[in-house]
Design goal:
homodimer, mainly alpha, Multidrug-efflux Transporter Regulator, Chain: A, Domain 2, 2 domains, two-stranded antiparallel sheet, 2 strands, elongated, DNA-binding
Chain lengths: 152, 152
DNA sequence: TCTTGACCTAAACTAAGGTTTAGGTAGTAC
DNA sequence: GTACTACCTAAACCTTAGTTTAGGTCAAGA
């Protein structure tokens, strides 16, 4: 099955200009052209774009994605490199999730804080509130989001 | 207690140039200068920078951070705006975490895939493997990370 | 044949988020 | 008094990740 750039664009909800940009940056190796020079995509290129989607989601820079894609194109001799790369990415994503979880704690604290402030019609009261007067789960988020700074 | 830009830079591990940039962009309202024009930071500015750190972590653009900081500077009349903003950000971060969790599933699948490929010294065998032949938890991650595309 | 639509390229442009540079001031140290 | 350090500014510059533009090709339909 062959696909044209427009179909790929619809399939992935990526603008055509972006797909061409990815190709130009070398993110889609072995992409062939028809007699007229039009890009022709096959299943393997769709798989490539799926991987690009995944790698982009974790903010991997274009040039790293390119390197990875070239390893894929080089075949079995680069399996270990690719494996190592995914294990490194796993750590990075796990760390990101943990950081976001911490951020969420901070946000939850702020949500609570402003909900109280709104009820009071002023920040003054909640600003003065001591941790022991906060609801249990908020107190935890508060310590959670402030601990880093306090340990310095 | 007063702080100079260098101390703030060390405290937050942010380059001086970046702090000046934030100030220029209006992210640190009410920052005063000494007789010589040097920026003088107080506890409230440190709190501001802590909030900036938090908002940056969730990729809030500079101009939104600026808006928020100005609401803070405006006092109690903007409490509801700020509260609403944090509730919106809460949703955004929760969504990001879910997306990253999905990405992690994809990565876990790839880690398994390349671990098998490395053992086999070739991708061929694992590439042909059917879901029912994969380990239980990998099969789930596989379906998890491929379901979106298959439902289209 | 003419036109229309989908495609192509190179290169300029954009936006975000800083960083670097060039030139200058203020306060302390010798 | 001059050297040194920390600070200042405006403006140019940089990188990333695209987007837009201007000009062109190709195949199909009226």
């Amino acid at each position: 099955m062959e696909y044209r750039i427009q179909e790929i664009s619809n399939m992935f909800h990526i603008p055509i200009s972006t797909i061409r940009y990815y190709d130009k940056q070398g993110l889609i190796p072995n992409l062939e052209r028809d007699h007229a020079g039009n890009r022709i995509f096959h299943e393997n290129h769709i798989e490539t774009l799926r991987v690009i989607e995944c790698l982009k989601r974790i903010d991997m820079p274009i040039k790293d994605i390119k390197e990875f894609m070239h390893w894929v194109a080089m075949g079995d001799e680069t399996i270990t490199k690719r494996k190592d790369m995914f294990f490194r990415q796993k750590k990075i994503v796990e760390k990101k999730i943990m950081e976001l979880q911490e951020t969420l704690n901070m946000i939850d604290f702020k949500c609570w804080y402003y909900t109280v402030a709104e009820e009071d019609q002023t920040e003054e009261k909640v600003k003065q509130m001591l941790p022991q007067d906060m609801p249990q789960e908020i107190r935890q988020k508060y310590f959670n989001s402030h601990k880093k700074k306090e340990s310095k």
